[in-house]
Amino acid sequence: MDLSIVTDEKNFIELKFDGDAHTFLNIIKRKLVENKEVSFVGYNKPHPLVKDSSFSLRTLKADPKKLFRQAIDELIAELKELSL
């Protein structure tokens, strides 16, 4: 799965994922929804046969790239707690 930045603004990023990323993006989106600094988060998979997806994140004041990375780090920590 490859990632590229489509739009990078002060409080908004749009990312493009090449490859099947539906499950990954859904988990990250659910984590970011919990953050009070996020004003909008969503992803789009245009068609089940198309492997590319886009992910959008708009924040109130925080750096969206930092919040995206923070969500991933938090999910990794949660998964480590589940491991036996």
How does this structure look, described?
It is a single chain. The chain has 84 residues and is an alpha+beta fold. It has one domain: Gyrase A, domain 2. It has 2 helices and 4 strands. It has helices spanning 22-33, 64-82; strands at residues 2-9, 12-18, 38-44, 53-59. The protein has a 4-stranded antiparallel sheet, covered by helices on one side. A hairpin with a 2-residue loop joins strand 1 (2-9) and strand 2. Helix 1 packs across helix 2 (64-82). The longest helix is centred in the C-terminal third of the chain and has 19 residues, at 64-82. The termini are far apart.
Topology:
Elements: E1 2-9, E2 12-18, H1 22-33, E3 38-44, E4 53-59, H2 64-82
Antiparallel strand pairs: 1-2, 2-4, 3-4
Task: Work out the helicity level.
Answer: 25-40%
How much strand? 25-35%
The low-confidence runs, each spanning 5 or more residues with pLDDT under 50, are: none
- The total count of strands amounts to 4
The CATH homologous superfamily is called: RNA polymerase, RBP11-like subunit
CATH architecture: 2-Layer Sandwich
Q: Mean of residue pLDDT?
A: 91
